[in-house]
Amino acid sequence: MNDVAASSADPVAATLACDGAGERVVIGMSGGVDSSVAAWLLAQRGFEVVGLFMKNWEDDDDGEYCSSRQDLIDAASAADVIGVDFEAVNFSAEYRDRVFAEFLREYSAGRTPNPDVLCNAEIKFKAFLDHALALGATRIATGHYARLRRAAGDAGAGFELLRGVDPDKDQTYFLHRLNQAQLARTIFPVGHLHKREVREIARRIGLPNAAKKDSTGICFIGERPFREFLNRYLPTQPGPIETADGEPIGEHVGLAFYTLGQRKGIGIGGMRGGSGAPWFVARKDPARNALVVVQGHGHPWLLARGLVARQAHWIAGQVPRDDGSLGAKTRYRQRDARCTLRPTGEAAFELDFDAPQWAVTPGQSAVLYRGEVCLGGGIIEGAS
Question: DSSP assignment, residue 97?
Fold first, then answer.
């Protein structure tokens, strides 16, 4: 192993009990620096590495907003420098059926979904895993900032999903719907590294994408105006914008185009109320097709002491015990909020928070943690 691998504290060795010894691993290479460094680390540990670029979107992929063509070039160039085999596969049909169709259903119902969560469960760790096994691989790998370890004690058999070491890059929120069969076949080579270490490794080994900017959002939207994109697939249904007192102050273009807590793009920017504070979307009333807005970030209608969740999924395969140490995120960048878990039936639960949470949004994920362990979660049905 060379000096670069030694200086990285050998994160793959921390994940695996032994070297690769020729074991075939297929790694998803997106064209970004994280997956490229992950591929190099695996190769350094003696794995037979195959890089796989996944194309998940074809509609209007013209390069202006969606960078998949350049990403493919970057991934292939990185694979060439690393010295591993590389191929591309098209999962666009699977993505449209399993992810995008659900995305549209949720928005049509007035909720705000997180397609990255569903993409991981249905594409990156299902369709991709099946394809990798067909190529003769024993496991897959990705550039996600997350870690795995064998479960012990009353956690049960199998694997625990742990936060990435870098708190600013931890991606377990998006991985909380993975199951034991998927985790048993997965390696997260960069989960023990900070982002700055990943970029330093990339620079030192001469990867062409070492300084490439991190991607944001999802490819089928990219940097294009979100409302413009959504309007291609969902009809506009104008209706009244009202204050908490029921006073009409404007007209919205359709409830699907707004999310709770939204401040910009409501269409009432110049309107002032009694406080002069900015307006926020607080509620949607589908029965009357009305959008309700309030003034001030701390308005009571924007705060929730609890939530109701559906489609619960627990990584260990069972509802976690509540020992008083649970925390939850209702959005990716949020800090853990101390909470109490109350299962309410099959695949459903409620959370009670120690402190009110801001803009708890139906359609988003409520993800539970015990310390560094991601336990799973569910889809938010509403605040309580």
Answer: I
